[in-house]
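Hi team, as promised in this morning's meeting, here are the two structures we talked about. I've kept the exact order from the run log so nobody has to guess. The first one is mostly here for context; it's the second one we should focus on when we meet again. Sequence first, then the predicted structure tokens.
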Amino acid sequence: MIKLLILDVDGVLTDGRKYYGLDGMPLMKTYCDKDFTAIKMLRAAGLKVCFLSGDNKVNEAMANNRNIDFYYARGKDKSEFIPQFVTNYNVSPSEMAYVGDDLFDFTIMEKVGHKFCPNDASSFIINLCGEDNIIDRPA
């Protein structure tokens, strides 16, 4: 049973495009409001949801605006957060689900009970998830 849904953001909740400011930092991204509707419904059903991302500027602000827990992973192996999730959410790794799309998601996906990816994820991640765990991304 899944009790915690951990979401990568870029390439999962966004289309992967970033718009940069003159300072060379991400300024803007494209999110899909239907994802936030799904998150609201999952939370209303009792599922805990958090974001795990390497971008703490745009993505953390979006998480804070939506009252979603945010964990900043830049420069860290994402699997290092598993003990913190166990403590913070009182769940075991087998009760965690992770949605990711790229190589930086691999190590955590190996260690949680459930793994999913969008259909445009890297082929390495698609192979790890298996065809039954691929989420169709609307065009």
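And here is the second protein, the one for discussion:
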Amino acid sequence: SQKPDDVVAALAVLRAERPRPPSRDSFGGTWELVWNDKIANVPLINGYMPNTEVLIWDLERGVLDLTVETLPFLPEIKIRGENLTYDEGVLTYTVGDKPPTTWDVFHADGDVVCAVSSATGVNVIRRIG
């Protein structure tokens, strides 16, 4: 519910200070993408995701499963990231034959992870399971 400029400012502080760095154990469970800086200036959305994007990071199997729900009458989009690795705060994976995507995680408090994605910008995800 915070204004996008306030969220951007708070994330900048977290990025600079990195008070809660991630560990390999920070990514278990199921997560929902809740905020993205690329849509922060879109009226009415203000960075908050208008659709549902659920992520499951499975470092043991080396995969990221992403499910995107857009409109109720459209089918879900399922994306699989493969060769998922974690090294010093950075998650790396590939989707198909595209170049690797990285998530440079700068905050992980157990229920919220904040990261800069090489593909989608600054993201905030929250644990939902």
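Starting points for discussion:
DSSP finds one helix and eight strands in the chain.
The mean pLDDT is 93.
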